[in-house]
Specification:
- 21% of the residues lie in helices and 28% in strands.
- The C terminus is likely disordered.
- Strands 4-3-2-5-6-7 form a 6-stranded mixed sheet, with helices on both faces. Strands 1-9-8 form a 3-stranded antiparallel sheet, covered by helices on one side.
- The chain has a single domain, classed as Rossmann fold.
- The chain is of the alpha/beta class and 188 residues long.
- The longest helix has 18 residues.
Length: 188
């Protein structure tokens, strides 16, 4: 599929991604041995990573989703995050793992962690496929990380550009210059 997209260059191949997903799932299984975990995916991008991890975790696992936005009518981030889809499950007393595709500025995860802590989970951890610390504004550290990446605009494995490329199995960067307008969730 990449051959049809000359604007993309593979950064991390699917085989390496799947190996790392298995490692993250083993870490979660070890950390919560014999307990139930509740995975909360941040829509839309995290659904691919969440599904891959959930299939590899060897524990009783439940799943829910949450969605946020930092945009009003404009194309630039307002810097203010707002909840647009809440959880359907009560998380009080549960081992919750917030699953995100990329930890970038930390604004989204900082906001979500604050909201979820108020709901009194037994534990609250963060799993990210990608950690891009070069753009960090808020001091958020993931408990489980797939890959630490440099400051490139990336797509695939759930990450998109204007709703395109999410379904790519490899993680790719734009090889012919990065887009001038960064999609909303990339800024978070």
């Amino acid at each position: 599929m990449i051959a049809r997209h000359p604007e993309l260059k593979i950064l991390i191949r699917r085989q390496v991604i799947q190996q790392r997903v298995r490692t993250v799932a083993r870490q979660i299984t070890r950390d919560f041995r014999g307990q139930r975990v509740h995975l909360v995916g941040v829509l839309k991008g995290a659904c691919f990573f969440l599904a891959d991890v959930a299939r590899q975790v060897d524990l009783e696992t439940s799943i829910d989703f949450i969605a946020v936005s930092s945009y009003g009518a404009g194309k630039e981030s307002s810097g203010q995050v707002r909840l647009i889809k809440d959880l359907e499950t009560r998380i009080a007393g549960l081992n919750v793992i917030l699953v995100e595709d990329i930890l970038d500025t930390g604004l989204t995860l900082s906001y979500l962690l604050r909201i979820l802590r108020r709901r009194k989970p037994k534990t609250l951890r963060v799993a990210v496929l990608l950690n891009r610390p070069a753009r960090r504004i808020k001091p958020v550290k993931p408990d489980y990380t797939g890959f630490r990446i440099p400051d490139h605009f990336v797509v695939g494995c759930g990450l998109d550009y204007a709703e395109r490329y999410r379904n790519l199995k490899d993680l790719c960067i734009f090889s012919k210059g990065e887009p001038k307008q960064v999609p909303r969730r990339r800024l978070l």
